[in-house]
Write a structure and sequence with these properties.
The complex is a heterodimer of chains A (about 140) and B (about 170). Chain A is flat, with a radius of gyration of 21 Å. Chain A contains seven helices and one strand, in the order H-E-H-H-H-H-H-H. Chain B has a seven-stranded antiparallel beta sheet with strand order 1-2-7-3-4-5-6. In chain B, a hairpin with a 2-residue loop joins strand 4 and strand 5. Chain B is elongated and about 60 Å long. Classes of the chains: A mainly alpha (about 140), B alpha+beta (about 170). The interface between A and B is medium-sized, with 23 and 43 residues.
């Protein structure tokens, strides 16, 4: 028999989702993925193996996407409006760095990958200058 | 049987018709009932809240800022998220949880195409004491919500749904 209860029974669960807000941030995460991109490009250039080269392209695109993701998380979640006073070029820096990561994703240009590394290093300086290692890493950043 | 001949007859017919229409709408996926999991929409929505959602609005027009919508999780397509539309920018939506400090939303997975959204939240029907529509915008101050399990305000309705097979 049709009851109010069956009529109103939820068909599914919907998620008011939150990744655990752990508060751990470090530009190193983006840098390691960007270093992978550079090394993959170097291996790509020295290989004649078609299959290997195809794998290189595939993995490099994944890694470059991860660079963008890690930079976005730092940009949105770690950096706060007060940091802008100290670094007025913060948005510009992130915007250029994520654009550079797109370039690394699209090309096999080792120079572009090196440029991306130096941009991440600039972000790393801002992270350190705002107390990142002490505030966001457990027991500070490992040396 | 006297009810069928007495003054209650039109009322029963009306209720029966409403129930049949509702069941048909659910079968046609124009209306559905869902349960909230997670706390990123607090204080507007709490875990365990049950909602009626409808799909005809976004068949006609794009979502608007302030509306609470269901959307497939772009990072985990088997999961459906519930978030509020913070802004509409052309054909893209910026989604936020009402509890931004503990919400994974467009700040993490980016803006989503308008076409990704089908269901709009119409109202909350459970728990009965918080029955009704949702606030049209994210509450700017945290609401001082009474703890769950406060005084019952709609015991008859509550019993009707929770109690089982009276219908």
């Amino acid at each position: 028999m049709l009851t109010l209860r069956t009529l109103l029974r939820p068909s599914r669960r919907v998620h008011a989702h939150c990744d655990i807000p752990c508060g751990v941030y470090d530009p190193e995460q983006a840098r390691i993925e960007a270093e992978s991109c550079l090394r993959i490009i170097e291996k790509y250039e020295t290989s004649d193996d078609k299959v290997f080269r195809a794998r290189c392209l595939h993995v490099k695109e994944e890694r470059a996407e991860l660079v963008k993701h890690h930079l976005d998380v730092l940009w949105h979640d770690y950096f706060k409006p007060e940091h802008l006073d100290k670094f007025p070029d913060l948005h510009e820096t992130f915007w250029k760095a994520t654009k550079q990561a797109s370039k690394v994703k699209q090309t096999v240009d080792a120079g572009a990958a090196r440029e991306l590394l130096s941009m991440i290093d600039r972000i790393d300086e801002m992270w350190k200058a705002t107390g990142g290692p002490e505030k966001t890493r457990v027991n500070g950043r490992p040396g | 049987m006297s009810g069928w001949r007495g003054p209650a007859r039109p009322l029963l017919l009306l209720l029966g018709t409403a129930a049949a229409l509702f069941a048909a709408s659910r079968a046609l996926r124009r209306i559905d009932a869902v349960e909230v999991e997670g706390a990123s929409m607090a204080p507007s929505l709490l875990p365990g809240d049950r909602l009626l959602v409808e799909s005809w609005t976004y068949a006609r027009r794009a979502p608007r800022a302030g509306e609470v919508v269901l959307v497939t999780d772009p990072r985990s397509p088997s999961r459906e998220l519930i978030k509020r539309v913070a802004a509409v920018d052309g054909r893209h939506l910026d989604l936020r949880g009402d509890a931004p400090a503990s919400s994974t939303d467009s700040r993490h997975f980016g803006r989503l195409p308008v076409a990704a959204v089908r269901w709009r939240v119409a109202l909350r029907y459970w728990p009965p004491r918080r029955f009704g529509g949702l606030p049209a915008a994210r509450p700017s101050e945290p609401l001082d919500l009474e703890p769950l399990g406060g005084e019952p305000a709609c015991t008859a309705f509550e019993a009707l749904i929770a109690g089982g097979e009276q219908g």
